[in-house]
Amino acid sequence: MKRKKENLSSGRKSLQYRGTKCLNCGHPLDRSDVYCPNCSQLNSDKQLSAKDFFGEFISSILVYDSRLRKTLKDLLFCPGKITRNYVEGQRLKYANPFRFFLSVSIIYFLATGLINFFTPNEEIVSRNSETKIGFNAMMDSISANTSRTISYADSINKEKPLKYYSDKELDAMPFTQSYKERFSLYNDFYEKHKIKNAGIALDSLHHRNTAVNRWVYSKNTTVEKISEDPTEFAQYLITKIPFFLFFFAPLFALFFWLIYSWKEYTYMEHMIFIFHIFSFIFLALLIAIIPDLLIGSKFFISCFFLFIGPFYFYKALRNFYQQSRVLTLLKFVFLSTVFVIGLTFAATIFVVASVAIY
């Protein structure tokens, strides 16, 4: 009698509301199926009430919190364990590694953005001034060590005559030289006449008014804008870092795939390991922000990059790939070196590409 009463209850999971076909994917069901085995939707044709809706909403939050809690716990305190469990099939236990990485990195940059927003104006002015001085010093160094045609310093010298090339002459040159001379010519012309409108400038130079030529000429205003306010450009780059690392990870994963080729892990499983490492970095930086903010220094962040980060990476390699200490140490040194070199190379391309679209 009690069982019959339960079956006739008003809950959406009640037997009286169960059907023989999933309303979401059409998969055939038995009336004993509470959830569809194909898509996991609840087997119920009961109309959705406010109570049902908010009940399912609260339930989904609690389930997500459980996954988030387990993800944070294993990621922070058990290097490599979360990747091993995820690869071995414990997928619902943890948050998706790719989405989790993007979420935690974006949260980190939002947090640092808020902190910078509430930083005293004197400190911001000082930092902007230091950044500008550093940028100008870098440009002076480049000017002192490059030839006239590619030199930034010579390009701003208005007294020197314009080294003119026609479109036909530029087109006849090899590709690299052609664009180098075109950039140099347009930069010299811009510094001499300060004409910002690309169409007018190209007409004055008797060059074709093409999209490529307009883009090349427009980079003069970009360089000027960056030199006037390098901090703004730096902030622009910082907001793109999560996406830069997201696309850098596949390149880095190639080296894991090569040196761990004897293991049965796929390329994507190495990628998951890398995203877990990147997620830990941003989580640790988020945690270090508070004490560093209180003491007014970068002590904890420095400790992380010097000691905690390298040790965590070594332990994660050892726990996930399960090799000897000596072999893991050798691969740790190799992968760390590859990471620094690869990151420097990729970051250079990233900065150049950012300037191109800035």
Describe this entry's structure for a reader.
The protein is an all-alpha fold. The chain has three domains: 34 residues, no CATH class; 140 residues, no CATH class; 85 residues, no CATH class. 71% of the residues lie in helices and 0% in strands. The protein is built from 15 helices and no strands. It is extended, with a radius of gyration of 29 Å. The protein starts with a helix and ends with a helix. The N terminus is likely disordered.
In short:
The protein has 358 residues and is an all-alpha fold. The protein is built from 15 helices and no strands.
Measured by DSSP, the beta-strand proportion falls in under 5%
Provide the helix percentage: over 70%
Count of β-strands: 0
Question: What is the chain-wise order of helices and strands?
Answer: HHHHHHHHHHHHHHH
SS summary, helix count: 15
Major sheet description:
none
Task: Output mean pLDDT.
Answer: 82
| Coarse structural class | mainly alpha
Radius of gyration: 29 Å
- The overall number of domains is 3
Note the quaternary state here. Answer: single chain
Main traits of this protein?
mainly alpha; 358 residues; 3 domains; 15 helices
Task: Please describe the topology of this protein.
Blueprint: H1 2-7, H2 50-77, H3 81-87, H4 97-117, H5 121-144, H6 152-155, H7 167-172, H8 175-193, H9 198-205, H10 211-228, H11 230-239, H12 241-259, H13 267-295, H14 299-321, H15 325-357
Helix pairs in contact: 3-13, 4-13, 9-10, 10-11, 12-13, 12-15, 13-14, 14-15
